[in-house]
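Amino Acid Chain and Its Fold in Token Form
===========================================
What this section holds: a protein sequence and its matching fold, both as plain text.
Structure line: whole-number tokens from a learned vocabulary of local backbone shapes, matched to residues.
Purpose: to set a sequence beside its fold so the mapping can be learned.
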Amino acid sequence: MVHGKVSMKKPTASAKPVPTVAAAPALAALVLFAGAFFISELAHGAGDPTAGAAKAKACAGCHGPNGEGVKPNPKLAGKSEDEIVQALRDYKSGKRANPMMKALATPLSDADMANLGAFYASRK
């Protein structure tokens, strides 16, 4: 293209195809879908129980080393990963009021929460 004019050169057989503007919406949709899938997997069932076991050491004093519960604190073992993740999110946001749990949940990332959920879900 020179000064707003389109070149009329015919491509050679060895020329590589160049993505066009028409492909941009499809590419954008693919990127958004892949990102949404990754986030969804992280949030639902993608936790690592081994990583969760390391994080759960901070929980053992009140919930037991395997989440069996130490009265008056609830048993966490056997709860679904989603239940644990949602509870931690609620403590972090303040939707569930408990100063100790808020202090412990606030620094946790989404991955940390998923890992904790996977750990406790793996315990029966």
Summary: The mean pLDDT is 82. The radius of gyration is 25 Å. The first helix runs from residue 24 to 43.
